[in-house]
Amino acid sequence: MVSWFAALVLWPAAASAADAVTGAGRVIAQSTIMVDHTRVRLEGLDSAMADANCATRIGKCVAIAKEGLASLIEGQTITCSLGHKIAAAYFLGTCSLADGTDIGQRMVEEGWGVAGPSAPKAYRDGGSGAKSGGKGVWAPR
């Protein structure tokens, strides 16, 4: 009887803990990382880079984005707030480094990603700065 009571009391806490994952990160794709066995697609980023300077060689854009993301998260502890579930162990989410750096925002600020139409204003502003500054995928080729 006590174990059922404990399970009922602890169950909401366990469910809310599943809304976030923390751990080392690994790059899966230009806007997707793996944290604690969970794939997280960085919310607010758009993988479409048709306007980027490397548009005729989209593989080059992908490589720039993946390399930038890898350099940002390498050796870092990452916490991701999970949003919409895409598939089993695959979520949209926002992720940050231990120092509070928003990974998606940094991606667009460095020109390693493109802010999507529903991205936060900070992402869109950062993306404009990267484009006008010729950073990342916006660098002259």
From TrEMBL:
Gene3D superfamilies: 2.40.50.90
UniProtKB keywords: Signal
Leader peptide range in chain numbering: 1-17
Region (Disordered): 119-141
The keyword Signal belongs to this UniProt entry's keyword annotation: yes
Domain of life: Bacteria
Start-end of Gly residues biased regions: 126-141
Alphabetized InterPro entries for the sequence: SNase_OB-fold_sf
Keyword Signal: yes
Protein known as: TNase-like domain-containing protein
